[in-house]
Amino acid sequence: MKLRVLGCSGGIGGDLRTTSMLLDHDTLIDAGTGVGDLSINELAQIDHIFLTHSHMDHVACIPFIVDTVGWMRDRPLTLHATRETLGILKEHLFNWKLWPDFTQIPDAKNPVLRYEAVALGSEVAVNGRRITPLPANHVVPAVGFRLDSGRASLVFTGDTTSNDALWTVVNGIPNLKYLIIETALSDRERELARVSRHLCPSLLAEELAKLKLSPEIYITHLKPRESELIMQQIAVQVKERRPRMLQNNHVFEF
Hints:
Blueprint: E1 2-7, E2 20-23, E3 27-31, H1 40-44, E4 48-50, H2 56-59, H3 62-69, E5 77-81, H4 83-92, E6 113-117, E7 124-126, E8 129-135, E9 143-148, E10 153-156, H5 164-170, E11 176-182, H6 190-196, H7 201-208, E12 216-220, H8 227-237, E13 244-245, E14 251-253
Parallel strand pairs: 3-4, 4-5, 5-6, 10-11, 11-12, 12-13
Antiparallel strand pairs: 1-2, 1-14, 2-3, 7-8, 8-9, 9-10
Helix pairs in contact: 7-8
C-alpha cells in the first residue's frame, strides 16, 4: 500500500489543504481541498472514497470530482461512509439545492455516484487492501480507519477527542506501523477542544498514555493560527513518543 497525503491542515491558505489522502491510485481517504491538486486524469482513476464524517473540510471536493470526471468513467464512483454520514450528505449536499444528486445522474440505473454503507469494525476489502472503520468521538457521527496491507497497518483517527473505545481496538493491532492522530487546537483552547470534540496537546498526552504499541506518530488537522504552538506543546508533553507534524505529499508505504 502507498498512502499519499494530499491535505492535512485544519484550514486553507497558501499551501494549506484540508484533510484528504490518496491510497495507491484509486482510493481516497476523505476528500478535502487537497484533492483539488490532482490532475483530471488522476481524478478519473479514483473508484472509492472512504469518509470519516460529513464535515465540509473532509467532503468539499466530492461534488467537484463527480461533476468533473463522472462522464469519463465507465462505472460509478463509490462513496463509503456510515449510514448516518450518508444520510447527512443525501439531505444536505446531494439534494438538488446545494448540489445535484449524482446518484440519479444520468439516471438511477446508471449513476456516476453510488453509496455504500460501512459499519464500525466491519472490514471492507478493496482490491486486496483491507479498510476497517474504527471508533471516533466527534460532534457528528464519525469513524477513523485502519488500513491494512497484510504486512503492516496504518491507523487514521479522523476527527476525534478522548476515546477509550479506539485504543481498545488499536492495541489489538499487532502489525501497527503508523498512527495519524488529530490535534486541532492548543492547550489555551482546551475548553473549545472539549466542546468541539477535538484534541489539544494535553488531551493528546492523555490519549497516547493508553497506547501500548510503538508506531510512528504523525499529528494532523492543526489549526493554522496556532500550528507552531500546538507542536511546541506536544513536544513537551509527549516527547518520549517523538510525534511529527504531518505534511502535504508525505508518502507512507506499508
